[in-house]
């Protein structure tokens, strides 16, 4: 009698849905939710990852982490609609010149974290995020206990808010031209203010982080003037720039001429020139001279306080030029 037997026996593992399932919060990271699911089901995160059929023993955060995973069975086990999976993952733009999404938690909302321990929302990873979108509270560094008590000048906050908005729009729209300009801005800022670098976008030092984001706004609005002010007050910075950017000789020559044409500013407190840096333009503003204030008042009187900022600046510049 001819008996035919299969060469291999296939074993199918039937994964049952998890008995306890706390619902995910709006904009919560998949890795954060899986961590909370492990706590709710009294198991470790690696055990839950193995049960879900993941290749690694850590929760996924990007689509790359789900390569080779049966996402239909994965979502069925979690009782998660497949269309909601993408909204819980981080999507990076590899072609963008600046790294704008942190690979780990560098800031958090103390209010949300107190209500839901171990939660992590997706927008907390973004370099441009300053406030929690869930409750509106200001985001704080995860490893700094004194961050909430650090005083940030109002002008620095305003400038950083504008820089964060520009960075967000450029990244979301995939504007690589703006990204390259921002990248150059960060390089220049790093030469003029060595304490900050590209990594300051995710710094645990709030002042450094706000300064580098504020520098982005300066670099996108008035880069030549901001740099020329530094060259005027710190001649040694020109040497550092020429050493860092030897291929930008014509531009640096133009900056040097612009710096020479600017009036020498000396603070009333008698601060040394070394304290005047690129970041001072973004942070604490020096007291303007009376003729500048008068030109600004005349421009506002003529155009109105609701006029475009660029129009006000041009009008004030004309008044100032005529007064000299």
Automatic annotation (TrEMBL):
It comes from the Bacteria. InterPro entries: TniQ. Pfam families: TniQ (PF06527). Residues 19-132 form the TniQ domain. This is TniQ domain-containing protein.
């Amino acid at each position: 009698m001819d008996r035919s037997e299969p060469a291999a026996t296939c074993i199918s593992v039937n994964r049952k849905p998890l008995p306890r399932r706390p619902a995910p919060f709006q904009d919560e990271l998949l890795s954060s939710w899986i961590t909370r699911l492990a706590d709710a089901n009294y198991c470790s995160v690696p055990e839950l990852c193995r049960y879900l059929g993941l290749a690694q023993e850590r929760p996924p955060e990007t689509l790359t982490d789900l390569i080779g995973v049966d996402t239909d069975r994965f979502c069925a086990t979690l009782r998660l609609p497949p269309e909601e999976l993408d909204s819980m993952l981080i999507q990076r733009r590899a072609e963008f010149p600046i790294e704008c999404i942190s690979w780990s938690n560098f800031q958090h909302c103390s209010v949300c974290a107190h209500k839901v321990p171990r939660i992590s929302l997706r927008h907390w990873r973004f370099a441009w995020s300053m406030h929690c979108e869930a409750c509106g509270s200001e985001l704080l560094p995860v490893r700094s206990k004194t961050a909430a008590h650090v005083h940030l000048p109002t002008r620095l906050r305003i400038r950083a808010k504008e820089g964060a908005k520009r960075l967000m729009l450029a990244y979301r729209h995939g504007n690589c031209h703006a990204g390259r300009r921002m990248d150059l801005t960060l390089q220049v800022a790093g030469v003029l203010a060595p304490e900050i670098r590209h990594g300051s976008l995710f710094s645990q030092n709030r002042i450094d982080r706000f300064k580098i984001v504020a520098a982005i706004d300066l670099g996108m609005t008035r880069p030549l003037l901001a740099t020329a002010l530094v060259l005027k007050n710190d001649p040694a910075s020109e040497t550092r720039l020429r050493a860092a950017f030897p291929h930008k000789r014509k531009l640096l020559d133009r900056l040097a001429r612009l710096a020479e044409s600017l009036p020498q500013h000396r603070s009333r407190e008698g601060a040394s020139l070394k304290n005047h840096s690129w970041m001072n333009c973004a942070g604490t503003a020096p007291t303007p001279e009376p003729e500048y204030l008068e030109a600004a008042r005349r421009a506002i009187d003529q155009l109105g306080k609701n006029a475009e900022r660029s129009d006000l600046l041009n009008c004030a510049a004309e008044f100032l030029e005529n007064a000299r």
